Amino acid sequence: MTKKNLINNEIKAPKVRLIDENGEQVGVVDIKIAQSKANAVSLDLVEVSPNAQPPVCKILDWNRMRYQKKKEQNKNKSKKRETKEIKLRPVTDKNDIMIKTKKIIDFLTKGHRVKVSIFYRRRREVAHQDLSANVLQQIIDSIEEVGKVEMEPKLEGRNTMMILVPKKQVST
Length: 172
Fold this sequence. Notes:
37% of the residues lie in helices and 31% in strands. It has helices at 31-40, 62-78, 94-109, 123-127, 129-143; strands at 15-19, 25-30, 44-49, 56-60, 83-88, 113-119, 147-156, 159-166. It is rod-shaped.
């Protein structure tokens, strides 16, 4: 169906190929006969294929079709992958980093993007950014099989952050 479907009196073709409300093909009929059949069953005559010769029209409920289209579009929007966030500190223990890394791998295998951020509370922590760089490099090394770095680690205010994305799965 095209973006703007013509309905009822908007259809200007003298003859149309008609499909009834049950999905059965009636054949090529005059536009007035098609409109009267649609009115008889209290439904709309919708042009579904305007480029065909003659144009194909279907008897259906126009508002219901619009609702179904909108519902499908919203469903497709909700399937977008989210960005998950994992927060760390430069003084996070190695075991905690391993647990967070497993969670990152889990998110990446499900197809989500992951934002890893290290939050600095004090000035002294900001001064020792090499510690956080080591933590981030350790995470990068452990996820290289399932993901890759989209945005390299960079300092933004009191946070150092990077974004990881899943590697493309090769389908065979």
